[in-house]
Amino acid sequence: MNIKTILSSLIKLFVASLILFVLFFKTFGITVVKGFSMNNTIDNEDVVLLDMYTYQDNLPNYEDVVIVKRNYSNIDYSYKNKFLIKRVIGLPNDKIDILNNKLYRNNKLVSESYIKEPMECENMTFYIPKGKIFVMGDNRNDSLDSRSNKIGFIDVDHQLYAKAIYDISQNKRI
């Protein structure tokens, strides 16, 4: 092999590697979770793999774990996290009821095997508007989420950031 052939092969390999690198990080991301609102599903300081592409043209599904951007128009600026990780509970046009510490979606009891402990909160009803979703942390008694006016409904077009797909720290799918 001559030097030209070797150089040509190295350049092709470099370009292919660069393209794969860019495609990977355009499609996937990694984050470190800060906080306890998703315990026991995802723990504080866990490293999580994100799918950045799934929600470009699609709504999330019930129970997807998502990364959402904070809406700074209705929050306390002293809260440090710019992004939150939560579970999708309600989609546009859904009715969410919390009655006697149980969660109902469209008048049907939601089975929640993933929550840390039974929820303790006042009775509430939410009607999710078009273009919004309702999210909650799995650690219901220690989660700032859509139940609070500090978070509220999540705007699908402006706040939905990524889908959490794999907890690298715990070596498990989310």
Number of domains: 1
CATH class descriptor: Mainly Beta
Strand elements, count = 12
The structural class is: alpha+beta
Query: What fold name goes in the CATH topology slot?
Result: Umud Fragment, subunit A
Percent range for helical residues?
10-25%
The number of helical elements comes to: 1
What is the rounded distance between the termini? 48 Å
Largest sheet: 8 strands, antiparallel
Q: Approximately what portion of the residues adopt beta-strand conformation?
A: 25-35%
Order of helices and strands: HEEEEEEEEEEEE
Radius of gyration: 20 Å
Tell me what the CATH architecture is.
Ribbon
Uncertain stretches: none
Task: Provide the CATH superfamily.
Answer: Umud Fragment, subunit A
Shape, principal axes of CA atoms: elongated
Organism: Clostridium neonatale
Domain Peptidase S26: 11-157
GO molecular function: serine-type endopeptidase activity; signal peptidase activity
Subcellular location: Cell membrane; Membrane
Sum up the structure in keywords.
EC 3.4.21.89; 4-stranded antiparallel beta sheet; 14% helix; Pept_S26A_signal_pept_1; 32% strand; single chain; Umud Fragment, subunit A; LexA/Signal_pep-like_sf; 174 residues
Can you summarize this structure?
This protein has 174 residues and is of the alpha+beta class. The chain has one helix at residues 3-27; strands spanning 28-32, 47-51, 65-69, 83-90, 95-99, 102-105, 108-109, 124-127, 132-136, 154-155, 160-167, 172-173. Strand 5 (95-99) and strand 6 form a beta hairpin.
